[in-house]
Amino acid sequence: MSRLIVKNLPNGMKEDRFRKMFADFGTLTDCALKFTKDGKFRKFGFVGFKTEEDAQKALKHFNKSFVDTSRVTVELCTDFGDPNKARPWSKHTRQPSSKKDTEEKKTHEQGEKEKKKPKKILNVLGDLEKDESFQEFLAVHQKRGQVPTWANDTVEATAVRPEMEKKKEKKQKAAVEDDYLNFDSDESEESSDDGEDAADEEDKQDNEKEALKTGLSDMDYLRSKMVEKSDMLDEKDDDSSASAADENEEDEGKEEEESIVQHADSAYESGEKTSSQKSTRPAIEPTTEFTVKLRGAPFNVKEQQVKEFMMPLKPVAIRFAKNSDGRNSGYVYVDLRSEAEVERALRLDKDYMGGRYIEVFRANNFKNDRRSAKRSEMEKNFVRELKDDEEEEDVAESGRLFIRNMPYTCTEEDLKEVFSKHGPLSEVLFPIDSLTKKPKGFAFVTYMIPENAVSALAQLDGHTFQGRVLHVMASRLKKEKADQGPDAPGSSSYKRKKDAKDKAASGSSHNWNTLFLGTSAVADAIAEKYNTTKSQVLDHESDGSLAVRMALGETQIVQETRQFLLDNGVSLDSFSQASGERSKCVILVKNLPSGVQVADLEALFSPHGSLGRVLLPPSGLTAIVEFLEPTEAKRAFMKLAYTKFQHVPLYLEWAPVAVFTTPSAPRPEPQTKEKSAVKNDSVQNEEEEEEEEEDDQILPGSTLFIKNLNFITSEETLQKTFSKCGVVKSCTISKKRDKAGKLLSMGYGFVQYKTPEAAQKAMRQLQHCTVDEHQLEVKISEREVKSGVAQAKRKKQTARKQTTSKILVRNIPFQATVKELRELFCTFGELKTVRLPKKGIGGSHRGFGFIDFLTKQDAKKAFSALCHSTHLYGRRLVLEWADAEETVDDLRRKTAQHFHDAPKKKRKAEVLEGILEQMEVGDGDGE
């Protein structure tokens, strides 16, 4: 844990001094001292560090040390929902509401049972209840433990009880009448005083009547007084219990404390001398739920002045609080229509009315104020109220979470590292401040599988992250307006759905074509370069095929663009091969119109964030834009993808991670030596990539299948065990997801070695070895290593090493002919053969072909020029090196393996693929 709690701090501790004490041990992310609601220091505080190592250093240094004359105790904080956390004992700690509800429910049930018992007894006794002899019989037969020792074994005192109950009812009635308060007059005060005087006079008369009764003994008179005293004690007990309950409620929340303060204000406003008695009275029901209180109003204020002060709001009612003399007390209550008006009225706080300073605050001292109760409950759970244009999202459906109270020193990678442990992430929104470039303290995370979001919400809410306690909750979605949905006016629903689909898929790599060039832009660039017109370039009646002419023009522009980018420190070799990791700050801008300038691109992208380098080749059809912050780059990507720039849509793509070979800004005129150095570096990189590709090839017999694994065994433990016999390239344990979204081991795995010899050695030495108290069974795997988690299969482009002069061309348009292919490829060297396999006799070709050059050098030149982005009839040509032709020795070896080796079981799919390949080869040879 990186968060500490420091206890037993001295009384005079200030936050600045508290922060300086711990600042020497590392970067602080949080520092807070705790106070009561009354502002009294509770002698403890919290400190958050960015790393756990810094927190451990501070703990070791300060624990059980002295600050001034106090010996402090420093401990590591636990997570908010940790079940092993000690139960809080302080009265300031908020108790769980469920426990409180159960206690109230029990007391309510007990009270109902006690009320039901006397009713049952009365129904059984009937008329005997009023019989004096029967009452005397009951009194005599009572238990001695329930009767005082000085009792006279008589029941004369029971006759006094009805009279005392009548007195009690009169007093309660007088108290209820006194609870009513009218701000416009003081009639209630006079009536309450009259009621109290009348009650006192009746008590005196009753006492005099009892004292003058004939035949009343001294013992009976004293007994009557004793009964009255006991009733008074009962009343006091009730009052004390009520006050104790009020104190408990005060400790539990902020709302009760405010109500007590407002009770004191109401007593002060009414001008009563006995304010302590008035403060225990129940609250007053307001005329509306939306009432504000003005304090400090002039004593001669009029209703019109209050209306002018509240402008442009229109109050429903205005009430003036008066004192005992009938004069204004300076308090005005204003009733409004809605919560929005109350919020606007609160903004008038500290304004002036008639030259006096006015304080405006919410009048929430009402007992049955439903809104204040709802607000306090929301504040208790740290949840704000939904706005009109928002709606709650179900995490199990959306998989989107909102995280707040994040440290301001964290990065997007830190956040991904924490939340990716619960499942793969599809999107992370990490807002930063536009001026300071620092995080705003909150973020949004979207999971690819919604069930993972549910588990992350349960486990990470209240989790300590870099010294701060994270607050994770379900995100809220803005409601779709009428002019934004599929039925919005102005355009067809198909067009809006298509645009929305394109924007949503703009971040997917399968939509990317790195060096895409529009046909119209290519024609403009060719016409400008050769000083001709666009109509002459697109003339289909001229010599040669128009499609081949456009393809060659596009190839030339792509080569020039690549060379320009390489000269300026850009590496684009990864674009033409299998897709890898992409950058989060560099965007490749494609499909630009001809004649675009760098200033135009800067004006387009700069409103979304701070720009770094902006590279635009001479043709001006493709550009690279670098942002300084990943969040700003992501915002620009989402805003500008597929938007119209001048008269064409923009196509955006994330560039590779190592797109810039130099961190500094490129020079405008690079020297020739630097160019050659960059070229040499690129050649070396290509050779290194080829070596890595050779290493990535899986040799047969180099993969082991391990069974009977313990479910707690990790991939690190397995790799450590099997690395004793050779170099381990990969080690995976097959896993599956449970209902909660967690990955569970399936009890088996795969270990892939660099050579088959190392696999054979491991099978001999590690057979039946014990790992985590389980004996392992090892054997050679007959299939490739697959990922532990089932994922969607997708065919990736794999780079092949040149072994022949033959090129396999895929994705050939069906209207293309052998003549057009020969015309396209003969530009780079002399051809030997051009073959287009056909579907059948008289049918069209099958969409791929073979181009065989006389020399390997010509084939390599054609492959390097056309493999990046060459389009024929609008379809991009995909080039691969064809397999070498089999010699007679290879055929003999295959035949011998077929007859002598044990046949292996093949899947149906593998058998069908083999038959199709043989048919394709046969068709190609036939032509």
From TrEMBL:
Any single GO BP term: digestive tract morphogenesis
GO molecular function, one term: mRNA binding
Pfam family for this entry, one: RRM_1
Ranges where the RRM domain occurs: 2-79, 290-365, 399-477, 585-657, 702-783, 805-884
Keywords recorded for this protein, A-Z: Chromosome, Cytoplasm, Developmental protein, Isopeptide bond, Nucleus, Phosphoprotein, Repeat, RNA-binding, Ubl conjugation
Composition skew (Acidic residues), residue ranges: 177-205, 234-259, 684-697
Region (Disordered): 83-121, 153-289, 478-508, 664-699
SMART domains, per the entry: RRM, RRM_1
Entry superkingdom: Eukaryota
SUPFAM superfamilies: RNA-binding domain, RBD
Record's compositionally biased regions (Basic and acidic residues): 98-115, 162-176, 220-233
PROSITE patterns membership: RRM
Main location: nucleus
Keyword NAD among record annotations: no
Transmembrane segments annotated in the record for this chain: none
Classification via InterPro entries: Nucleotide-bd_a/b_plait_sf (IPR012677), RBD_domain_sf (IPR035979), RBM19_RRM3 (IPR034419), RBM19_RRM4 (IPR034420), RBM19_RRM5 (IPR034423), RBM19_RRM6 (IPR034421), RMB19_RRM1 (IPR034418), RMB19_RRM2 (IPR034417)
Compartments reported by the entry: Chromosome; Cytoplasm; Nucleus, Nucleolus; Nucleus, Nucleoplasm
Keyword flag Phosphoprotein: yes
Family per record: Belongs to the RRM MRD1 family.
Physiological role: Plays a role in embryo pre-implantation development.
Record-given protein name: Probable RNA-binding protein 19
Protein's gene: rbm19
